[in-house]
């Protein structure tokens, strides 16, 4: 690690702390040459593989932008969107993979979005899962009604007929 002040290559770690819900490590360092202190952050890289084969770093911002479109006109605030993006990142990171398909990121969005706002969930699912007929919407709505009547359950399990289309 180069000192940002004198460019010396030797520094020592004075303090380490977790940040961003344990995803990032903040390290306070001190330069061995000039003695000045500076902060570095370390995080495990997470790469998204898009349908075209192009890879890019995972971005919570991109998740928020995509979900915000589905939430347009709905009573969903920015804090809720930020929390949803955090949940999606935690879900994706919990797979233990350094690279993940964009499709898997979309699946990770469905569960938290369903809990946040059912209309936004239907909007997102209809585009993401390529609903083609009214029956697709009816099946998704019937599942939401069934879930509401049955009470809380884990978000979007594999047996979910809406997810089974993907």
Describe the structure.
- The protein is elongated, with a radius of gyration of 21 Å.
- It has six helices and six strands, in the order E-E-E-E-E-H-H-E-H-H-H-H.
- The relative contact order is 0.10.
- Helix 1 (60-70) packs across helix 2 (78-93) and helix 3 (102-116) packs antiparallel against helix 4 (118-128).
- Strands 1-2-3 form a three-stranded antiparallel beta sheet, with no helix packed on it.
- It is 45% helix and 20% strand.
- The chain is α+β, with helices and mostly antiparallel strands and 166 residues long.
Gist?
By secondary structure, this protein is α+β, with helices and mostly antiparallel strands. The chain has 6 helices and 6 strands; from the N terminus they run E-E-E-E-E-H-H-E-H-H-H-H.
Strand and helix layout:
Layout: E1 11-19, E2 24-31, E3 37-43, E4 47-49, E5 55-57, H1 60-70, H2 78-93, E6 99-101, H3 102-116, H4 118-128, H5 134-150, H6 161-164
Parallel strand pairs: 4-6
Antiparallel strand pairs: 1-2, 2-3, 4-5
Helix pairs in contact: 1-2, 1-4, 2-3, 3-4
Coarse shape: elongated
**How would you classify the helix and strand content by structural class?**
alpha+beta
Q: Characterize the biggest β-sheet.
A: 3 strands, antiparallel
The count of DSSP E runs of length 2 or more, i.e. the number of strands, is 6
Helix content percent band? 40-55%
Beta-strand content bin? 15-25%
Integer-rounded radius of gyration? 21 Å
Order of helices and strands: EEEEEHHEHHHH
Spatial ordering of strands, largest sheet: 1-2-3
Quaternary class: single chain
- Continuous helix count: 6
What's the average pLDDT?
Answer: 86
Instruction: Report the uncertain regions.
Output: 156-166
Distance between the termini: 45 Å
């Amino acid at each position: 690690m180069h000192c940002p002040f004198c460019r010396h290559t030797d520094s020592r770690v004075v303090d380490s702390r977790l940040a961003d819900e344990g995803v990032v490590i903040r390290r306070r360092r001190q330069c061995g040459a000039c003695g000045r202190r500076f902060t570095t952050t370390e995080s495990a890289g997470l790469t998204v593989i898009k349908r075209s084969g192009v890879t890019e770093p995972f971005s919570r911002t991109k998740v928020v932008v995509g979900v915000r479109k589905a939430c347009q006109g709905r009573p969903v605030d920015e804090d809720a969107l930020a929390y949803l993006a955090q949940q999606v990142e935690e879900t994706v990171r919990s797979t233990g993979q350094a690279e993940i398909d964009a499709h898997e990121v979309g699946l990770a969005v469905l569960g938290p979005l369903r809990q946040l706002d059912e209309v936004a969930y239907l909007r997102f699912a209809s585009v993401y899962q390529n609903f083609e007929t009214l029956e697709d919407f009816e099946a998704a709505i019937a599942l939401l009604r069934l879930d509401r009547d049955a009470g809380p359950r884990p978000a979007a399990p594999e047996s979910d007929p809406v997810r089974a289309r993907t």
